[in-house]
User: What shape does this take?
Amino acid sequence: MTHLHKTLDIVALGEAMLEFNQRPSSHAGEAPLYQQGFGGDTSNAAIAAARAGARVAYLTRLGTDRWGDHLMDLWQRENVATAAVQREPQAPTGLYFVSHDAQGHHFSYARAGSAASRMQPQDLVHWTDAITHSQWLHLSGISLAISASACDTALAAMALARSHGTRVALDSNLRLSLWPLARAQACIRHAVSLCDLFLPSLEDMTALTGLTQAQDIIDWSHAQGATQVVLKLGADGALASDGKNQQRLPGHAATAVDATGAGDCFAGNLLARLSAGDDLWAATTYANAAASLSVQGFGAVDPLPTREAVLKVLNTSSKGATA
Assistant: This one.
């Protein structure tokens, strides 16, 4: 195993997209209005990490269209390095719409045949430097799901990372609209065996494994090979395990208006703090606070908090605990 000097904290791999997020209507029967923003789970996590102070790069393919230009501009503004992003003249950048109702938020995608879905393992020729010089490689179930070639690329990137001392983080992010359950089960199980940190959600793991109890999910994840596991429990916080010790770390009260990017915010902030030297428990506590802020605004990117905002929440909660 070769350990190179780490000039990046986090490199994320996946699909970034344009987001159109429904805004509340002022009158009954009014046609919905959509605010244009940005999304894509690993891109959201990368931006969240950068806002937390981490050194971050992104790996993907984008179309040579205006949407792709807008995403490149976004990453530049957010201090996410784009030197390794590939532009694809033969395929578009993906889009998605978010609608809201009493049951929560719902996604509608226009991503079939997107540039990112055309990722190939040979793209690693362009991405090797970023992966091997980063502390962490971050991927998700969506990184694996968008196409067979993208899955092969993600798994090859994970293997490359591990061979160069780069730790691998995987968010379950199960989207059964993208692939059949049996394939998702096989691919995600294999990916968990290649990761150092697994970030599942209760809902995802019940669908993937049939398990409904937090402890059973933690045990399953370690059994597949994940060294560290942080089970996301939404408003209830998270259950973190390093295989020897466990801590349940509470969430923070928040008035949620849009939970679109909350899990991505959690992942990015967790990795930023682990990169900065925090232990798993402190990093999870920080990520819980960050996620509570991200649900208080619309869209996946706009509400992602700065480090100053997160520290304010943590400071307020610690004062409350000692009062």
